[in-house]
Design a protein that fits this description.
This protein is of the alpha+beta class and about 120 residues long. The chain contains 3 helices and 4 strands.
Length: about 120
């Protein structure tokens, strides 16, 4: 069962999870990461690396974030793969404790890993 990135990642995007992942399942948006459920090997390595506790195995995604299952699948097909940790947004720490961030989700792609 794949892992899912949920709302706490929005505007934080710390990317600690990216380099620990043994496969290329993370995709980068402008202000969030998502996991491609078809590439995720269910290893759970990323879960403990996330400083905002945004990553859950699909069956354990909290009810208020269940739609992130579809969001991850859809945006992973549109956003570039990221395999190296980049710099988080300058104001990421100020967003860590914000509980409701959905309105800030940008569906614009991020840069991904340079080729």
């Amino acid at each position: 069962m794949p892992y899912i990135v949920t709302e706490p990642c929005i505007k934080c995007k710390f990317m600690d999870c990216v380099e620990i992942c043994p496969v290329l399942c993370f995709h980068e948006g402008e202000n969030m990461l998502v996991i491609d459920p078809d590439e995720c090997i269910d290893c759970a390595a990323c879960v403990d690396e996330c400083p905002v506790n945004a990553i859950y195995v699909e069956r354990d995604v909290p009810p208020q974030w269940k739609d992130y299952v579809e969001i991850n699948k859809r945006l992973a097909s549109q956003w570039p793969v990221i395999e190296l940790k980049g710099e988080p947004p300058a104001d990421a720490d100020s967003w860590k404790g914000v509980k409701i961030k959905r309105e800030h989700l940008s569906e614009n792609p991020g840069p991904g890993t340079p080729k």
